[in-house]
Prior knowledge:
Strand content: 15-25%
Largest sheet: 6 strands, parallel
Amino acid sequence: MHKYKAILFDLFDTIINFNFRQLPTVEMNGIRSRTTSKEVYSVFERYYPEISFSGFYPYFIESYHQFQEMKLAEYREFPNRNRFILMLQNMKLTPNEKTDRLADEMVVAHMDGLAQCIEFPEENKRTLEKVKEKGYLTAIVSNFDYAPTAHALIDKYDIGRFFEQIVISEEVGWRKPKDIIFRRALMLLNIEPEDALFVGDNFSADVRGAKAVGIKTVWLNKNRASLQAEPPPDYTIEGLPQLNEILA
């Protein structure tokens, strides 16, 4: 096997996992969803008590989809605050100091809700320990639109000790699969693309993005999804501990 100098990792659903079953269930128009909408509405109603949850919820969902479309257009990263500014604009609420404060507080409520759903499996921790024991340079390259929460979770689980560099899309202004964010990590580690191996769960963002830059890839395919796109990953695993077999 090619001798790599560095292993680059995606963060969410690769190192740490979302468990959305921990979010409260919301049912509207016969559709049940698990979202942070209740946490965010608890902030919103302090500012606009005359607007009910049923009046708030459609705009909450609509802004999410609009925000994702904005990101996918050119793979630019926008701060999560922009999503809630967009939501308030859609609700025809006049921008002022009040809505500025509200947007900031809704971001925190939303992110706090998401952070409660995070799990760090013990086997993933052991895998990172073994990677570091082998002497590889390491970096996190993560798509996330609110860097303070990403860093807080890295600190909470003491993950930072395994990595030389941490690259979060909000701080770069671009998202995977854009080449810029991968090149930022390579520059920080002072390595060439052929010296790195990227590990991630999202085929489009992680596999396509890394391979377009010339980085070999490990696709973490936990759900055993069929491969229906090109280019294929260099390796496929179903759990992060299997990375040790590749690096053996």
